[in-house]
Amino acid sequence: MNPVLFVVRFLGSITMVKKSVNSEDVIGAFIDSSPIPQFIINPDHRIIFWNRALEKYTGIKSSEVLGTDKHRKVLYHAQKPLMADLLVDGDLEGIKKWYQGCKKSSYVDNAFVAEEFFPQIGENGVWLYFTAAKIKDEEGNVIGVLETLEDISQRKNMELSLKNAKKEWEVTFDALPDLISLIDVDHNIMKVNRTMAQALNMKPEELVGKKCYSLVHDTDEPPSYCPHEKLLQDCQQHCNEAFVDSLHGDYEITVSPIMDDDQLRGSVHVAHDITQRRKMELDLKESEEKFREVFNNANDMVTLNIMHPEGPGKFLEVNQAGLDTLGYTREEFFELSPGDILSPEDQKNIPEKFKKLQEEGYINLEMTNITKAGERIPVDVALHIFQLQGQDVIISVARDVTERRKAENALIQSEKKYRTLFENMLEGFAYCKMLFDDEGQPIDWIYIDVNPAFYELTGLEDIQGKKVTEAIPGIIEAQPELFELYGRVTLTGEAETIEVYFKPLEIWFNISAFKPAPEHFVAVFENITERKKAEIALKESEEKYRLISENTGDVIWLMDLDSQRFTYISPSVYKLRGYTAEEVLDQSLEDILTPESYQYLMEKLPQKIQAYSLGDESMKLQTFRVEQACKDGRTVPTEVVANILTDETGNITGLLAVSRDITKRVEMEEEIQKSLQEKEMLLKEIHHRVKNNLMIIASLLNLQSRYIKDKKALSIFKESQSRANSMALIHEKLYRSTDLKRINFGEYIKTLSTDLFRTYVGDPSRVRLNIDVEDVMLDINTSIPLGLILNELVSNSLKHAFPDERTGEINVVFTLTNDEYQLKVSDTGIGFPSDLDYRNTDSLGMQLVTSLTSQIDGELELDTTKGTEFCIKFKEKEYGQ
Predict the structure, then answer these.
(1) Residue 702: which of 725, 726, 682, 729 has the closest Cα?
(2) Which residue numbers delimit the PAC domain (predicted)?
(3) Which end of the chain, N or C, is less surrounded by CB atoms within 10 Å?
(4) One domain, residues 28 and 137
(5) CA 106, CA 878: separation in Å to the nearest integer?
(6) Structure pTM?
(7) Distance CA 667, CA 522 (A)
């Protein structure tokens, strides 16, 4: 098929297909089945179709290029725009620039054709003749460009061959049987072949320079039918037939222009002796004229072939449409019979069909022709037998039904797709015929077809073929707007959409209506009742929260983070700051806050927002205390609870916050703080006095011990003094600490152990004290009993572990691991007596250790494998405030 004619038919077919099935798949199938290489790009220069013929021609699969602009690289080594690229942009100057030999197509509006060598294709490159045509939608908008390609390498090679054959032409010129002459624009003979000279009974050189009409026609001027004279007018080839007296016969004279640099230099005259053919033509002319008129102008393929008794013989005649369709030359075609152009399956049926043709004289068939290239073409064939010069001849008229078959298949596929969509779509679908009264007013409609979703959404049953007034009585009065809508769409053809509350069914519908055919409409609808309920609930909720916002004592506000401007603020801001909401909307955050509060917020807020953006959800809701400036110059302390707002993609868009006046709270806090300070001073004084009293007791015990001679009694006094000192030390640390309820027990251990060491060890070089403790804060209720335990254990080691001037070490270790405290007091002395049960002893010190360990819910363990080691494990209790 001619590529240009294909573009014409294709662009028309696209419109037909869009109107009938609206399917890109059909267009794709149409292009894909074409034997002509072609592709389509969209306005973004992206390939949307790349047919199989182009795949085969370039070796590039459509999957490699669809959605890309690789057609440039496929067809050119360099980045040169294709004509399709320029045409889709409307760049006519670019087309002229890149394709200087281009011209407008004479077949297709707004299309261009050109020839170009494409080195990228094949091993040695190819010459292509290509056509680029715009594809427009129904509104005339360009939606793409179709480019078809035709390989003209053979023609170009022929031109090259002709150039190479110039010398051969010189040799063969004289040997040709036709009479050939070269004549200039003044009718002077420039050259003749020997045949021409012999026909005129002259030598070739004698003819050069003579007027052609003088020698051939024996006239003083060219005859009226002179083809050379016509050629001088239009520079076109001309051919006519005439009886030439000087040559004594009928000749077919063909003149062709000789051009040099677009200038006409003369013509080539070829005179072919047709005397015998003319005689035969005259014999056939009368019977052939009528037939030839029809035969030559038929768009369908028309053939003649002899009818032999055993079957149809070779073809006698074929029209140009048949040659174009099948791809044969006339000479090749006359060597064929009908069986040679039929598909294998149709060849098997030739005897049966031929017999029926013989019996009935005519027959209509559906068959498949095979082109010279092997392409299958479905055809409808009409065969008739008639007499031609006394012989039975079969005339066959074959119509190419390829496009009709494609359209039929496309319609079938479209119907399947439509039916599948129709049956499975979630929206209700109703195809209806509108009924009007004599005045053109809509009065009813008939349900022609509805889908399953229609029944499911409406709850109606068996409605097909019924009028709506029969199916839903009272609908005209209940829903007059539907009759107006459907009537208007049916009359104007303009699609419309409406949301309507369908009173008979108590359902909200979103209805889209359009006109598929005259007097008909289609309604596609969905149940939006839940959405409408949600919208109503949302409006009610918005109204409720608006009332809350406008009547609450707190100030509710929205702020854009980029501009630091308020987008909403509740009217209660007037009560807080003396400004109206409208005035505040014109203020920035810096205008609203005191300088100190603004600086504080600008330091803290970005940090919180950054942390939230990195995934810390705890930062979404934040509380700040800031001072706000009032219109009368005052400042008011406020507590701001800010919630970070995000859009549907998670991007932070602003803040929703509530500001509350905390003036009274601040005043109460100040009073509480003042009261707390007074109580702290009182508690410090109590600790100080308790410590002093304990120290007095220790001093009194010390003074009294000077008068005691009994060693045992003296020991008891010293132990009591030590215990008083240990408790006094705790109260001293509490007195000096900022925390009046807890002390650093690690420091306490170091101080107490060192004091005991100095009290009991006269020679520090004999016994070494090792202290390994952590700085751990303990409640006073734990510290006092634990301090007494420490006092007893360290005192015991100092007094009893190293008798007789022995040397050794005492170790005190205090650690915290997983909420469990451990206090270890160990020595390398003589060891704890094996016959003494430390849990049941008369020793007051061990009784204190056991009792106080129980008081703090601890566990007491004794290890005597290496000296003596006491270990107390406990978890600190939760004491009331």
Answers:
(1) 725
(2) 112-164, 363-413, 620-674
(3) C
(4) yes
(5) 101
(6) 0.30
(7) 73
Specify whether 238 is located in the same domain as 211: yes
For the chain, the distance separating the N- and C-terminal CA atoms, rounded to the nearest angstrom, is 102
Q: What is the pLDDT of residues 69-118, one digit of tens each?
A: 887 777 765 567 888 888 999 888 888 888 888 898 887 778 899 988 87
| 291 within 8 A of 263, measured Cβ to Cβ | no
DSSP code of residue 636 = E
Whether 758 contacts 708, CB under 8 Å: no
- Work out the angle between the directed axes of helices 745-760 and 780-800 (0-180°, nearest 10): 30
Q: Which of 441, 705, 659 has the alpha carbon at shortest distance from 556?
A: 659
Q: Is the pLDDT at 684 greater than 60, yes or no?
A: no
Where is pLDDT greater, at 788 or 773?
Answer: 773
Could you read off the pLDDT of 482-538 as tens digits, one per residue? 999 999 999 999 999 998 888 888 888 999 999 999 999 999 988 888 888 887 777
In the predicted model, what is the mean pLDDT of residues 656-663? 81
In a domain, 499, yes or no: yes
Q: Could you tell me the pLDDT band of residue 20, with boundaries at 50, 70 and 90?
A: very low
> Are 750 and 875 part of one and the same domain?
yes
* Amino acid type, 442: P
Residues 6+ away with beta carbon under 8 Å from 520:
431, 432, 433, 434, 448, 490
Integer-rounded Cα radius of gyration of the chain: 57
* SS3 category, 775: coil
Q: Is there a domain that residue 812 lies in?
A: yes
- Between 214 and 489, whose confidence is greater? 489
- Burial environment of residue 694 by CB neighbours within 10 A (0 to 12, 13 to 18, 19 or more): buried
Give the chain's mean pLDDT. Answer: 82
Q: Does residue 140 form part of some domain?
A: yes
401 shares its domain with 429: no
Give 25's pLDDT tier (boundaries 50, 70, 90): low
- Looking at the structure, do residues 200 and 245 belong to the same domain, yes or no? yes
Q: Which of 157, 184, 210 is the last residue of a domain?
A: 157
Pair 596, 494 in one domain: no
Within 10 angstroms of residue 41's Cβ, the number of other Cβ atoms is: 24
Task: Give which of 582, 583, 591 is closest to 563, Cα–Cα.
Answer: 591
Residues 571 and 630 in one domain: yes
Per the DSSP assignment, residues forming a β-bridge with 131 are 113, 148
Contact present, 47 and 38 (Cβ < 8 Å)? no
Summarised one tens digit per residue, pLDDT across range 605-620 is 888 888 888 888 877 7
Q: Is 144 left (phi over 0), alpha (psi -120 to 50) or beta?
A: left
The domain of 219 spans 172-273
Evaluate whether residue 704 is within a structural domain. Answer: no
- Amino acid 239 reads C
How far are the Cα atoms of 425, 434, 521, 526 from residue 500, in angstroms, in the given order? 21, 19, 18, 11
CA distances from 621 to 603, 617, 656 (A): 17, 8, 10
DSSP labels for 341-388?
GB-HHHHTTHHHHHHHHHHHSEEEEEEEEE-TT--EEEEEEEEEEEEE
CATH number, domain with residue 28: 3.30.450.20
Q: Is there a single domain that holds both residue 186 and residue 264?
A: yes
Write out the two tokens for 645: 């707002």
Q: Per-residue confidence at 244, pLDDT binned at 50, 70, 90? A: confident
Beta pairing class for 820-827 and 868-874: antiparallel
Residue at which a domain ends, from 644, 661, 678: 661
Compute the Cα dihedral for 133, 135, 140, 141 and give only its sign.
Answer: negative
CATH number at residue 745: 3.30.565.10
pLDDT in tens, 36-45: 899 999 999 9
Judge residue 880's burial from the number of C-beta atoms within 10 Å of its C-beta, 0-12 exposed, 13-18 middle, 19 or more buried.
Answer: exposed
Please, which residues have CB within 8 angstroms of residue 15's CB and are 6 or more apart in sequence?
Answer: 138
Tokens of 794: 């360290």
Query: How many domains is the chain partitioned into structurally?
Result: 6
Q: What is the per-residue DSSP string for 264-297?
A: EEEEEEEEEE-HHHHHHHHHHHHHHHHHHHHHHH
